[in-house]
């Protein structure tokens, strides 16, 4: 990769990592399900009128929109609102790589290698260490919600693989249309119309800024730039940069939110990130085969 492309990949990882801190700030302004709905509404409009027609079948857009948009982000935002720290959330979500491998094995018969299986076990040990740390400082129920969010993310990864969208930005913008109404309906049902109205009436520049960041910077720019990199470089070259997300997430949460960066938490980070790296590792021969199949 050219140095400029490396810097872009690191920038995207930083944007996605800082996103968790921004979400934490946004949850001070909005109920979690309403905040998630506004995020997708802002990501979809006006971009949906600029990216052209969908380039995959509607069933894939609906499926990914519901699993990723409603389930994954709904659970993540509710979990963080219930007390899951931003930095720890950015770390725990990386277990999605393990869920992706397990679901791909069940649905697509993609058998993980021994190295990948070892990586899964190491990553799961990192989750166990993180759970022990959270058990002494925060609610385990919120921790479990973020784990469920990671499982939904893994399922959406497999659905996205089946969809094989030729344009990542076009796909993400159309996927963002799907969750808006279901999340608004869930917010009205579970959070109440009065709470939603109070949040909208109290909207200020900070609240609007958090929506703009999670919608336009994280979603539109982040996924657009990531897709641009994937079109120019092998996935095996680009994907490892995502392992920087929890580093930026935990660091930004410590700097801006004052979250404790305990030794136990960094130990969990080392185990989980190392395990995920092994889970996604491909030997040179296997990597070339994957890239040839992707090119065709």
List keywords for this structure.
mainly alpha, 296 residues, 15 helices
How does this structure look, described?
The radius of gyration is 18 Å and the shape is globular. Mean pLDDT is 86; it is low at 284-296. It has 15 helices and no strands. It is mainly α and 296 residues long.
Strand content: under 5%
- Tell me, what's the shape? globular
Radius of gyration: 18 Å
Fraction of residues in H or I helices: over 70%
Structural class: mainly alpha
The major beta sheet can be summarized as: none
Give the termini separation: 22 Å
Number of helices: 15
Name the average pLDDT. Answer: 86
List unreliable stretches of 5+ residues: 284-296
How many strand units?
Answer: 0
Strand and helix layout:
Elements: H1 3-26, H2 32-44, H3 58-81, H4 86-92, H5 96-108, H6 114-137, H7 140-163, H8 168-177, H9 180-190, H10 193-201, H11 205-232, H12 235-238, H13 245-256, H14 263-279, H15 284-295
Helix pairs in contact: 1-4, 1-11, 1-13, 2-3, 2-8, 2-9, 2-11, 3-7, 3-8, 4-13, 5-7, 6-14, 8-11
């Amino acid at each position: 990769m050219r140095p400029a492309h490396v810097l872009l990949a690191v920038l995207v990882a930083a944007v996605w990592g800082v996103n968790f801190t921004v979400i934490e700030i946004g949850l001070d302004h909005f109920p979690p399900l309403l905040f998630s709905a506004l995020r997708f509404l802002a990501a979809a409009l006006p971009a949906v009128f600029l990216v052209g027609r969908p380039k995959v079948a509607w069933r894939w857009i609906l499926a990914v929109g519901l699993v990723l948009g409603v389930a994954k982000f709904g659970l993540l935002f509710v979990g963080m609102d219930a007390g899951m720290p931003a930095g720890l959330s950015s770390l725990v979500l990386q277990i999605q790589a393990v869920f992706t491998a397990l679901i791909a094995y069940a649905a697509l018969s993609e058998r993980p290698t021994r190295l990948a299986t070892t990586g899964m076990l190491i990553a799961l040990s990192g989750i166990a260490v993180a759970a022990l740390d959270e058990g002494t400082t925060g609610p385990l129920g919120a921790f479990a919600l973020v784990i469920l969010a990671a499982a939904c993310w893994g399922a959406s990864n497999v659905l996205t693989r089946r969809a094989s969208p030729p344009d990542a930005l076009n796909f993400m913008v159309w996927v963002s249309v799907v969750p808006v109404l279901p999340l608004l309906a869930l917010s009205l049902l579970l959070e109440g119309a009065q709470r939603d109205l109070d949040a909208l009436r109290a909207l200020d520049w900070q609240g609007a800024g958090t929506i703009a960041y999670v919608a336009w910077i994280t979603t539109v720019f982040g996924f657009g730039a990531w897709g641009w990199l994937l079109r120019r470089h092998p996935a095996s070259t680009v994907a490892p940069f995502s392992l920087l997300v929890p580093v930026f997430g935990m660091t930004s949460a410590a700097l801006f939110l004052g979250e404790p960066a305990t030794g136990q938490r960094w130990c969990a980070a080392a185990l989980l990130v190392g395990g995920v790296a092994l889970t996604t590792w491909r030997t040179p021969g296997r990597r070339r085969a994957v890239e040839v199949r992707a090119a065709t």
